[in-house]
Structure formats: structure tokens, C-alpha cells
């Protein structure tokens, strides 16, 4: 018995010695290693496993941390009573997040997941190339061990996607331009961006409501059609061609599309791009969920001569050549044809929108605008390339109603029926663009009644002018017809005409008639 006690006492002594040794002799790193060992033993008996997602991973910012933060900020079931509020640069919305050391319960496929936001003070820094924040932040995810495969397989991807969506919704759209052509900046980007705050929406757009609805449905189907595009083996992209006279709302429509879908816009200035490969580079640097716009496509490039273009492109594909070589090979004829020393070709552009390269991202919309659709090559118009052709026309009665509602807040019952009738009668004949009409409404918007009166006057005037013009055109046409007829008659007279008229032979030559009586 005495021996047992003495052995216990000696064991205690050893333990106490170990503890003192641990605190005095062993450096903190070793103590930390011991603690880690103990926690590992503890965890091996626990039915949970833990994932740490730290804010800074080595020297890089951990993207997953930001994504989790955003994702959790969208969750309404935050348990803590203290929330952190943030507003990012260029953002119009405020997001809230978990406060320090707060927890939140999430469920995914009916599996419970517990998130904890762990914040601790960073120990005084040794030398570092990059100063680190004073606080060490991270999320710890606790899940049941048996759910681990599912979380690793899809939950984290789901969080990344959800965070990207939230970011897009919170952040203002961006408008990118390639003002430097296709050349790259210091960070290897060919695009420059500015926040895009165009107020145009489908509500403010004056056009036929049925067409508008059709376009909106088309966009909706496109944005939610990932599985459809995958199933049918098509690249997830769509092309729209907007055509019509200047001031009919083509650019406004693009802005409305971007605002409707929450996409960024890449405004491609084709005249600044010099080669097909530059064009391809630009395409590769566009992000998904974006609208790539080429305005006034008929003015940007000579798009009518596809064969010549194809030859040029195949020439330039054979071996890399300098611009100078290429230009001299193209010869002055080609230069005159394109109007500049641009070597972008129609086939290059078609590859850009349609070829294999167009699939290097997904969920992208191409929009081309033109005032002269008849000038475009049929290759550009064939279906599959430009899926929807949208004609933006002069202001119709339906469009006018939208403009009156938006600018003057005049609905159906706010004006007398006779006024509506008057407007309806003249608006089509006036052939005024929505831009002209809205200019008028803005001018007199302080006096609404006057605005409508003035508008009717202008519409009538334009309608008369058009009718006059049409009258003049008709007169001109008639005159021309008359001239033609007289020319034909003169022509007929100049011919030799022989016929009998009962009394004898009549010879008609160059307008002169001779009678030869029968003997
Ligand atoms: N359909 C429309 N609905 C509402 N506003 C319009 C419409 N069309 C034109 N506007 C007004 O006219 C202005 C010019 O329109 P916009 O720039 O969209 O015309 P566009 O068709 O792109 O012309 P262009 O062919 O010259 O580029 C816009 O700022 C907008 O206020
Ligand atoms: Mg425009």
C-alpha cells in the first residue's frame, strides 16, 4: 500500500514537473503543439468536424472568407443582436454581417451547419513584407462528420455563387471601354471601367408594350436558361440587333437591358481595335454576365465584303506579321475599302461572336446597333448569330402614351378623349423620334397643358410637312412619269411607221407624215 502511494506521489511529482517544465522550459511553440495534440485527441472522439477559413491565407486575401461573409450577410436568421454594417466602394446598398465571435446557423439540403466568426488579436508582428491587420479574423464551420463529403462537394461552391450574385446586386454596374484599343494596361487588362449609372429601364423606354414584353421574356429566359443551353449543346450567349433611325432608343434599350439583368456592359469601340487577335484578346478578358455592345456597326468596319475579309484573315493567320507587312500586303485598294488601316475583318468579328472563342466565358449577350440594317452583310444577320432583330421605330401612339406618363404623369384619364384622338391621328404621320418628342416634353414640363398643346402643334406641323413632302414626291414622281411618257412617245415618233388607212399608204418617219394615195 505504502508502495502504491509512493508511486502515485512520484507520478504526481512527474506530472507537476512536466507542467512546470512545460511553462518554464518549453517555448510557447511547443506548448501550442501539445495543446494541438490534445485538441486532436478530443476531436477524434467528437462527432463534429471543423473548417477554418481565415481572412488572410499566408499573404493573400482569402476569397472564400469574403464570399462567406457576403453569403452570411444575406441570411436573415442572424442570431446575434449586434451586426456589422458595411458599404463597399461603388456600392449603392449596405450589407450587414456577423459581429465578432458571433454564431449563425445555416441549413443546406436540410443539413445543419454552424458558422462562427472568430476574431482574435494578432500577436505583435515580426518583420513582414506586407503589414497585416491587427485582428486575426476567420470563420469556423462546424458540421457533422458524416456530412463532410457533401459540404466539400457542393456547399462551398454554392456559397461562392451566391456571394457573386449578392455582389452583383449590391454593386453598381460597370461600363467598360477599350479606349486604348486592344493594348493592355499595367495589370494586363485591355478594358477600362467606370461605374455605370444609366437610369434607363424598360419602364422608361417608349416602345410597343408587346415587343417590350417579348424582349423582357427573352432576356429572362436567357438569364435562367443555363440547363437549357447545356442540354441543347449551345453556347450560353444571345445576340440582339437593334436597328432604326437615330434617336429611337437603341442605346437606351441597351442600358435598360443591363439594368434589367444586372449585367455589366462592354462597349467595344471597333475602330480602335487593329487586328482580329486583339479582338480575341478583348473577348477573353470580358467577364460572364455581361453585355458586349458594338454600336453603329455599319460605320465601324466594312462588313460587306466577307470574301475579301476572309482572305485577309487567312493571310494574317498563316504567319504572324507586323502591321506594316499586313498593310502593304492588303494594298491600297483594301485600305481604301475599309477607309482606315484597320485589319479587322468580318470573319474575325463573326468568330468573335459565334466561333469557338465566343464560349470562353458564359452568359453573355452581344448587341449590335445600326441605323442602316440594309448595309449589313447577310452573314451577320443569319439566325443563330443575331437571335433577335429589334426594329426601333418612330414614336407610335403607344410609345407616346408611355412618354406622356413618364414625363408629365398623364395617364389615360388625365387628358380629354378628344386630345388623345388628336394625338393618335397625327403621331404616326409626324414620324417624330421618341428623342424629339421627349425633348419637347422636357422643354415645357413646368406647364403640362402647354406641353401637350405644343406637342400637338409640332406633331401636326411635322405631319403636314411629311404630307407636303410626300405630295412633292408624288408630284415629282408624276412629272418624271410624264417625262418618261413623252420620251417614249418621241422615241416612237422617231421610228418609221408604215400602215394603210383605207385611202392609201401612210408613212410616218421622224414625226413627219406622208400620204401616198392609191392610184
Ligand atoms: N424609345 C425611347 N424611350 C424613351 N426615351 C427615348 C427613346 N428613344 C430615345 N429616347 C430619348 O432620346 C435620347 C437619345 O436616345 P438614344 O441615344 O437611345 O437613341 P439611339 O437610337 O441610340 O440613337 P443613335 O442611333 O443616334 O445612337 C435618350 O437619352 C432618351 O432620353
Ligand atoms: Mg445610340
From TrEMBL:
It catalyses: ATP + H2O = ADP + phosphate + H(+). Its cofactor is Mg(2+). The lineage of its organism: Eukaryota, Viridiplantae, Streptophyta, Embryophyta, Tracheophyta. Gene3D superfamilies: P-loop containing nucleotide triphosphate hydrolases. This is AAA+ ATPase domain-containing protein. GO terms for molecular function: ATP binding; ATP hydrolysis activity. Keywords: Hydrolase, Magnesium. It comes from Kalanchoe fedtschenkoi (Lavender scallops). SMART domains: AAA. Belongs to the AAA ATPase family. BCS1 subfamily. It holds the Pfam family AAA. GO terms for biological process: response to stress. It comes from the Eukaryota.
Amino acid at each position: 500500500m505504502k508502495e502504491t502511494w509512493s508511486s502515485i506521489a512520484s507520478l504526481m511529482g512527474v506530472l507537476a514537473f512536466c507542467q512546470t517544465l512545460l511553462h518554464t522550459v518549453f517555448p510557447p511553440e511547443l506548448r501550442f503543439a501539445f495543446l494541438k495534440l490534445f485538441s486532436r485527441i478530443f476531436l477524434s472522439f467528437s462527432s463534429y468536424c471543423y473548417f477554418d477559413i481565415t481572412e488572410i491565407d499566408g499573404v493573400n486575401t482569402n476569397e472564400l472568407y469574403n464570399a462567406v461573409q457576403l453569403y452570411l450577410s444575406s441570411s436573415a436568421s442572424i442570431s446575434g443582436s449586434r451586426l456589422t454594417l458595411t458599404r463597399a466602394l461603388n456600392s449603392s446598398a449596405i450589407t450587414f454581417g456577423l459581429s465578432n465571435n458571433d454564431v449563425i446557423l445555416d441549413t443546406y439540403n436540410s443539413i445543419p451547419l454552424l458558422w462562427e466568426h472568430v476574431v482574435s488579436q494578432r500577436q505583435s508582428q515580426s518583420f513582414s513584407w506586407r503589414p497585416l491587420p491587427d485582428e486575426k479574423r476567420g470563420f469556423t464551420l462546424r458540421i457533422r462528420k458524416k456530412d463532410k463529403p457533401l459540404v466539400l462537394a457542393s456547399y462551398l461552391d454554392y456559397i461562392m455563387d451566391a456571394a457573386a450574385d449578392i455582389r452583383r446586386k449590391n454593386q453598381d454596374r460597370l461600363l467598360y471601354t477599350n479606349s486604348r484599343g486592344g493594348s493592355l494596361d499595367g495589370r494586363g487588362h485591355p478594358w477600362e471601367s467606370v461605374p455605370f449609372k444609366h437610369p434607363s429601364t424598360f419602364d422608361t423606354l417608349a416602345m410597343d408594350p408587346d415587343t417590350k414584353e417579348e424582349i423582357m421574356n427573352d432576356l429572362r429566359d436567357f438569364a435562367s436558361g443555363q440547363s437549357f443551353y447545356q442540354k441543347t449543346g449551345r453556347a450560353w450567349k444571345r445576340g440582339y440587333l437593334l436597328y432604326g433611325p437615330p434617336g429611337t432608343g437603341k442605346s437606351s434599350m441597351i442600358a435598360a437591358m443591363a439594368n434589367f439583368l444586372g449585367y455589366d456592359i462592354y462597349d467595344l469601340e471597333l475602330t480602335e481595335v487593329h487586328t482580329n487577335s486583339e479582338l480575341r484578346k478583348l473577348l477573353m478578358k470580358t467577364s460572364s454576365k455581361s453585355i458586349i455592345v458594338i454600336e453603329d456597326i455599319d460605320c465601324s468596319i466594312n462588313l460587306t465584303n466577307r470574301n475579301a475579309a476572309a482572305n485577309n484573315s487567312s493571310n494574317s493567320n498563316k504567319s504572324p506579321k507586323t502591321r506594316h507587312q499586313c498593310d502593304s500586303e492588303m494594298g491600297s485598294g483594301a485600305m481604301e475599302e475599309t477607309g482606315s488601316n484597320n485589319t479587322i475583318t468580318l470573319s474575325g468579328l463573326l468568330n468573335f461572336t459565334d466561333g469557338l472563342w465566343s464560349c470562353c466565358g458564359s452568359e453573355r449577350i452581344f448587341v449590335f446597333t445600326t441605323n442602316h440594317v440594309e448595309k449589313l452583310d447577310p452573314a451577320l444577320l443569319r439566325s443563330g448569330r443575331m437571335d433577335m432583330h429589334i426594329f426601333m421605330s418612330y414614336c407610335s401612339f403607344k410609345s407616346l402614351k408611355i412618354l406622356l406618363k413618364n414625363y408629365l404623369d398623364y395617364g389615360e384619364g388625365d387628358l380629354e378623349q378628344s386630345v388623345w384622338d388628336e394625338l393618335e391621328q397625327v403621331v404616326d404621320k409626324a414620324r417624330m423620334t421618341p428623342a424629339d418628342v421627349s425633348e419637347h416634353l422636357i422643354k415645357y414640363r413646368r406647364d403640362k397643358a402647354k406641353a401637350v398643346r405644343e406637342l400637338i402643334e409640332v406633331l401636326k406641323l411635322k405631319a403636314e410637312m411629311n404630307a407636303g413632302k410626300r405630295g412633292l414626291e408624288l408630284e415629282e414622281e408624276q412629272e418624271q412619269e410624264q417625262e418618261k411618257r413623252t420620251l417614249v412617245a418621241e422615241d416612237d415618233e422617231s421610228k418609221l411607221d408604215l400602215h394603210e388607212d383605207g385611202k392609201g399608204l401612210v408613212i410616218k418617219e421622224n414625226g413627219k407624215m406622208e400620204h401616198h394615195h392609191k392610184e
